[in-house]
Amino acid sequence: MPTKVGVHSRADQRYRCHQCKRTFTQTDGTPLYGLKTDFDVVFIILTLLIFGCLVPAVVAAFKVNERTLAE
Q1: pLDDT (tens digit, 9 = 90+) per residue, 30-40?
Q2: What is the pTM of this model?
Q3: Beta bridge partners of 14
Q4: Of 19, 41, 47, 48, which one has the greatest count of Cβ atoms within 10 A?
């Protein structure tokens, strides 16, 4: 069966469905869609929070808004 998804733009990391012609990103439809923070930083922050790191410590270390972590 041929691949139904191809690269639309390498620079923007967008893909195109050959069947419906829609373009999308790798994170389209996930909670990570639209994030402006680098994925590696998000991964580190989530790992720290999962292991019990205090929110004020994460806010101070990564200069993120506390309300952003609450969402």
Answers
A1: 888 888 888 89
A2: 0.62
A3: 9, 25
A4: 48
SS3 58: helix
Q: Where are the beta strands (DSSP E) in the chain?
A: 5-9, 14-17, 23-25
How far apart are the C-alpha atoms of 20 and 69, rounded to whole Å? Answer: 36
Distances (CA, A) of 54 to 2, 44, 61, 62: 48, 13, 11, 12
d(CA 66, CA 71): 9
- Report residue 7 as tokens: 């690269």
Please answer whether residues 42 and 32 qualify as being in contact, where contact means their C-beta atoms are separated by less than 8 angstroms: yes
| 46 closest CA partner among 64, 28, 29 | 64
The separation between CA 25 and the C-alpha centre of its own chain, rounded to angstroms, equals 10
